[in-house]
Design brief:
Elements lengths: L2 E5 L5 E5 L4 H14 L2 E5 L5 H13 L2 E5 L2 E5 L7 E2 L1 H6 L6 H9 L1 E5 L12 H9 L3 E5 L2 E5 L7 E3 L5 H11 L5 E5 L5 H12 L3 E3 L5 E5 L7 E4 L4 H13 L3 E5 L7 H9 L3 E5 L2 E5 L10 E3 L10 H8 L5 E6 L7 H8 L3 E5 L2 E5 L8 E3 L3 H13 L3 E5 L2 H4 L5 H7 L4 E4 L1
Parallel strand pairs: 2-15, 3-14, 6-7, 10-11, 18-19, 22-23
Antiparallel strand pairs: 1-23, 1-24, 3-5, 4-5, 7-9, 8-9, 11-13, 12-13, 15-17, 16-17, 19-21, 20-21
Helix pairs in contact: 1-2, 1-4, 1-6, 1-7, 4-6, 5-6, 6-7, 8-10, 8-12, 10-12, 11-12
The protein binds ligand EPZ.
């Protein structure tokens, strides 16, 4: 298994252009099933998770080709309704293909995705909503057998603003009979990007980015072109890398509005951040400050996908910080690994107490999940000596060319087999 070897102590400087958003590409690739035509999607990041979704579409019979950072998906030849179990188990977010398959074929068989490293990841809200729209879903032997004679629009009140459930309902509703209203919908920017793709394909979706999304069913969707928005979590990760190494970097091709809660917390920790259109300059201070409270919340609150990265920064801030992870049940696995590097962190369920230390020291650590792995890289950049991170396949799920990007910014990192 591949490992990163990082020699710490280098300040980052230079500029980096941010990749397309993983969490926007995945639902939009699922959505390309609905039209039965050709979708041309650009700004595609080179990621394991994108490869997995392409594999799923191809396994169903779609014709998918990648030209540079442009994916051309022709879903006219899809002739299977069963999503391969091993692919669903490998990437649980593929569950959002359910809504798209029901919209196109009225039928889909898919393995129960099950949990992952950060928690059990239930899909009860997805299933309850799709059943409300007229899907008959049988759960047996670890599979979901879904059928419908025709989805019907309805009023859906989500118990929780689930990103995936909001996306699944949107995909099921675009060709349903009548109007679907989702209340307490997730408000993430990736939901807005999905709405843009769907409307470019002829759907009638309004309200994404607010808590109320209305979808008026149409006969069918057409061919369309779409460019994926920048990845706000990848941007936030590199911004944190500048802050933790006392560096100075420019993060380009971003949408500043998507980063407001991350900017606020990095500034509170002492980083100096200048915004200029689609770029940000981030300067790491000589002194980092502890955060009284870092609480993860649904958008526009502070994103759970940035919690681990900020925790890495707080391990060397002056003072004691409180981190409250309110979204996922088990998203502190990086804390134990950071402790091996000299951090002082105590966790109590969904709360972690991080007492800043003078410095971290390089150690052998293990990435347990995508964002936790990114946090270990950030810690390795600033630790005294050499850090070895194993299981970096987790990191490659969401970060394109991380080693190359960091070395270009002056870090000293290499991959070994
Ligand atoms: C999406 O996951 C993202 N993944 C996650 O990013 C992100 O952390 C999460 O949203 C929250 O922002 C993709 O977009 C591919 P949720 P999703 O449904 O849709 C509970 C990353 O690092 N819940 O909003 O699975 C659930 O258990 C990944 O890029 C139910 O209880 O998130 C969790 O506690 C990690 N029942 C909370 O809601 C349901 O039916 C948030 O889940 C659905 C969710």
């Amino acid at each position: 298994m591949e490992k990163y070897i990082i020699n710490g102590g280098y300040k980052l400087s230079g500029e980096i252009s941010i990749q397309g958003a993983k969490n926007s590409v995945l639902p939009i690739l699922a959505a390309t099933v609905i039209s039965g035509g050709t979708s041309i999607v650009s700004n595609i990041p080179k990621l394991r998770d994108v490869d997995m979704m392409v594999k799923i579409l191809s396994s169903l019979g779609a014709d998918v080709s990648l030209e540079g950072d442009v994916l051309v998906i022709n879903s006219s030849q899809i002739n299977k309704i069963e999503v391969p179990e091993e692919l669903v188990r490998e990437m649980r977010s593929s569950i959002i293909i359910m809504g798209a398959m029901l919209a196109r074929f009225g039928e889909v068989k898919i393995a129960f995705p099950g949990g992952c490293e950060i928690g059990p990841r239930p899909i009860d809200l997805h299933l309850k909503s799709l059943r409300q729209m007229g899907a008959v879903i049988e759960e047996a032997h670890g599979f979901l057998d879904c059928k419908t004679t025709g989805l019907k629009g309805c009023e859906i009140q989500l118990d929780y603003p689930s990103v995936g459930a909001t996306e699944n309902i949107m995909l099921a509703a675009v060709t349903a009979e009548g109007v679907t209203t989702i209340r307490n919908a997730a408000r993430e920017p990736e939901i807005i990007d999905l709405q843009h793709y769907l409307n470019e394909a002829g759907a009638r979706v309004v309200g994404a980015g607010t808590s109320i999304i209305t979808i008026e069913g149409v006969e069918s969707l057409n061919d369309c072109n779409h460019r994926i928005i920048p990845d706000r979590i990848v941007a936030g990760t590199y911004m944190t890398a500048a802050a933790i190494t006392k560096g100075e970097i420019i993060v380009k091709d971003i949408i500043t509005d998507h980063l407001l809660s991350i900017i606020a917390k990095l500034r509170e920790a002492g980083a100096i951040i200048y915004a200029n259109g689609s770029a940000l300059k981030v300067i790491g201070p000589n002194k980092l400050y502890a955060l009284e409270m870092l609480q993860t919340l649904p958008y526009p609150g502070f994103p759970t996908d940035m919690q681990a990265q900020l925790m890495a920064l707080l391990t060397i801030a002056n003072g004691t910080s409180i981190v409250n992870e309110t979204i996922f049940e088990n998203r502190f696995k990086h804390a134990e690994e950071l402790t091996r590097m000299g951090a002082s962190i105590k966790t109590f369920g969904k709360v972690a107490v991080v007492k800043g230390v003078k410095e971290l020291t390089g150690a052998k650590v293990s990435a347990k999940d995508l964002r936790g792995g990114a946090a270990l890289v950030l810690a390795g950049l600033v630790a005294q000596g050499t850090t070895e991170i194993e299981n970096i396949y987790h990191i490659n799920r969401g970060y394109e060319s991380m080693e190359e990007n960091l070395n270009k910014l002056g870090a000293n990192i290499k991959t070994i087999k």
